[in-house]
Amino acid sequence: MLPSLLICLALTLASVVVGVYAERKLSGFIQDRMGPTEVGPYGLLQLGADLIKLLQKEDIIPYLADRKLFLIAPGLIFTAVFLGYAVIPLGPDWIGSATSLGVFWLMAIVSLDVIGILMAGWASNNKYSLLGAMRSVAQIVSYEVPLGLVVLCVAMLNQSLDLQEISFGQGIYTPHPVYFFGIKSWGLDVTAAGGFLSWNIFRMPLFFVAFIIYFIASLAECNRAPFDLPEAESELVGGFHTEYSGFRWALVFLSEYAMMLLVSMLGVVLFLGSWNTPLPNIGPVRLADWTSGAPGTILGGITGLAWLLIKSAVLVFVQMWVRWTYPRLRVDQLMYLGWKVLTPAALLLVFLTGIWRLWMV
Amino acid sequence: MQNQILYVWYLLTAVTILAALLVVLAKNPIHSVLSLVVTFFCLSAHYVLLNAQFLAVVNIIVYAGAIMVLFLFVIMFLNLREYTEETKSNFAKLGAAVVGGVTLVAIIAALKKVQYPMPMRYDVRTGFVETLGEVLFRDYLLPFELVTVLFFVAMVGAVMLGKREKGERHF
């Protein structure tokens, strides 16, 4: 348990370091400027400089703030997000907790960061913080509905809530036969081919829509643009963390990036083949066998972790790309999209997945 | 191993009782609600110790997650520090005492029926989703469906309340 914990912690910290640098360079590229260039080669040490600055800053607590809650809140937010990593399989034989409830636990525990956000916003005793917290919570609670429904679709098709079991079903080591597009009557058995052909998104063609709903909802869950109303700089200064400084502000920032990585990893595990390789076996060219080690071997662990991280990094990249491309939504547009577009679509998908499960599998 | 679980149990129980006391004793309603969240969380941990994982997660997602967030939301909207404790009327105090007393009697009556030590009927699968699904969708299908009707009615009611009235502008 302890090694998994430390590895996950290291992973989150590393993801923040890489993420912040990548985000700044990427936004620079998209906006046709250079990004950080001064500190170190290509500005690589910029983040180190920023971190040192943040850590030695004074931890300011507003005079009229609710002192205890103000101090606890950032830790609570980070803990809630970090506990989600417990059930993410990092490889074929590597998972923090092998509970059979995996994804259900993840949804439950991550939804608790709402309490931390409300605490932070309210304890600051600042109207901008409170407004930011209100917006943030309303948004997260609303988008949890389509997110949960889409996750339910995947759980229904795989007949499991265990993320490791869902992972095994999407590659060459699956215990069940896999058919092309999941249609048994065509008789195209692709179990041995593996690769992207056995990913959930390919095994059940409707899951392409489900994945898009998942991605949009996960952006809203992370409070990322175009759903970044909770921290809209032009109207709310900085959202629920306006009053925070120094280390506690860094913790809030850390949770945001940890959340980005977590939802990307969950998306990869649910739809994009988890730790399985994307390359299929084509006749004698056994790409899938060459690029993934068998479960139980060291090579299997390494390739599994590598594929999972590569795929998650691509999703994180898309999140950043979206952030620097689209303008922010208005509050009513946000609620309209969540409740009147995504939720009915997700409900329909649950229904269709049920029919698919009954008739096609 | 047994001893470790016992220590965990003692610690959890202590925290649970402490948090539950704080719910009643805290002056600030927000602190009270947050203590209630901690209490629910500890109860979930107790469920895990009793091998009821599903129940534990449901408890977190429904009570600590959804209902308590709603509570916090409402309380934070209602009072922004200008709240002064108003004294309750004697009638309200009497009502509270009667309700509390009746609940206490009911709990004591229920506890008297408990066999101690518990009979050992240990089954790993008790808390699993599959077991719960079988019980819920086969043995108790009718009550389950009736509850869904209840939920449906509540949803229709919420939609009716939130519906735009004639001539009312939307944003």
UniProtKB/TrEMBL annotation, chain A:
Subcellular location: Cell membrane; Membrane
Keyword Phosphoprotein appears in the UniProt entry: no
Topology versus the membrane: Multi-pass membrane protein
Pfam families xref list: NADHdh (PF00146)
GO molecular function, one term: NADH dehydrogenase activity
UniProt keyword annotations, A-Z: Cell membrane, Membrane, NAD, Quinone, Translocase, Transmembrane, Transmembrane helix, Ubiquinone
EC number: 7.1.1.-
Catalytic activity: a quinone + NADH + 5 H(+)(in) = a quinol + NAD(+) + 4 H(+)(out)
Keyword presence, Translocase: yes
Highest taxon above the source species: Bacteria
Major location category of this protein: membrane
Parts of the chain that traverse the membrane: 69-91, 103-124, 136-157, 202-220, 257-277, 297-322, 334-359
GO cellular component terms given for this protein: plasma membrane
InterPro entries found in the cross-reference section: NADH_UbQ_OxRdtase_su1/FPO (IPR001694), NADH_UbQ_OxRdtase_su1_CS (IPR018086)
Gene Ontology BP terms: aerobic respiration
Similarity annotation: Belongs to the complex I subunit 1 family.
HAMAP family: NDH1_NuoH (MF_01350)
Its job: NDH-1 shuttles electrons from NADH, via FMN and iron-sulfur (Fe-S) centers, to quinones in the respiratory chain. The immediate electron acceptor for the enzyme in this species is believed to be ubiquinone. Couples the redox reaction to proton translocation (for every two electrons transferred, four hydrogen ions are translocated across the cytoplasmic membrane), and thus conserves the redox energy in a proton gradient. This subunit may bind ubiquinone.
Quaternary structure annotation from Swiss-Prot or TrEMBL: NDH-1 is composed of 14 different subunits. Subunits NuoA, H, J, K, L, M, N constitute the membrane sector of the complex.
Protein name as it appears in the record: NADH-quinone oxidoreductase subunit H
Organism of provenance: Siphonobacter aquaeclarae
Lineage: Bacteria, Pseudomonadati, Bacteroidota, Cytophagia, Cytophagales
Underlying gene: nuoH
UniProtKB/TrEMBL annotation, chain B:
Keyword Membrane: yes
A single Gene Ontology CC term: plasma membrane
Family: Belongs to the complex I subunit 6 family.
PANTHER family (UniProt xref): NADH-UBIQUINONE OXIDOREDUCTASE CHAIN 6
EC annotation from Swiss-Prot or TrEMBL: 7.1.1.-
Pfam families reported in the protein's UniProt record: Oxidored_q3
Membrane-spanning intervals of the chain: 6-26, 33-50, 56-79, 91-111, 140-161
Entry function: NDH-1 shuttles electrons from NADH, via FMN and iron-sulfur (Fe-S) centers, to quinones in the respiratory chain. Couples the redox reaction to proton translocation (for every two electrons transferred, four hydrogen ions are translocated across the cytoplasmic membrane), and thus conserves the redox energy in a proton gradient.
Descriptive protein name: NADH-quinone oxidoreductase subunit J
Membrane topology according to the record: Multi-pass membrane protein
Listed InterPro entries: NADH_UbQ/plastoQ_OxRdtase_su6 (IPR001457), Nuo/plastoQ_OxRdtase_6_NuoJ (IPR042106)
